[in-house]
Amino acid sequence: MPELQFKFSRQRRWMFSLLSIYVLGWGFTSYQTIFLGLVFGTSLSLFNLWLMVRKMKQFDESVSQGRKVRSLGSFSRFATAALAVVVSMRYPEQLNLISVVIGLMTSYIVIMIDFFMHSLQIHK
């Protein structure tokens, strides 16, 4: 499990870097609804990533102790995504719906990029 924590910390750094770029874009450009949507979606995506890592740790502990495993928490991640869409539809003048959805997908994109970069470093 230490490898999972290492990957999560690396992916979390990527997410915080993207969030800082989005905040700068929100503050210094005229596309504030787009960047605020990206900030909102990416923040919830980071929360979903944290939930997934936490559930994976619980899953690992349950399997190693021989207990029954319930789930990996897909419902809570879906509920977070639904909340993001509802909030962005409620406040369309502040949040761009498409950028919120793109922000929600950010953690999965970061996971894929991190995987490919790490696998390229191993094969060198």
TrEMBL record:
Membrane topology category: Multi-pass membrane protein
Pfam families per UniProt: ATP-synt_I
Extent of the signal sequence: none
Transmembrane segments: 12-28, 34-53, 97-117
UniProt-annotated location(s): Cell membrane
UniProt keyword Lipoprotein, yes or no: no
Keyword terms of this UniProt record: Cell membrane, Membrane, Transmembrane, Transmembrane helix
Keyword Nucleotide-binding: no
GO annotations of cellular component type: plasma membrane
Main subcellular location: membrane
PANTHER family: ATP SYNTHASE PROTEIN I
Protein name: AtpI protein
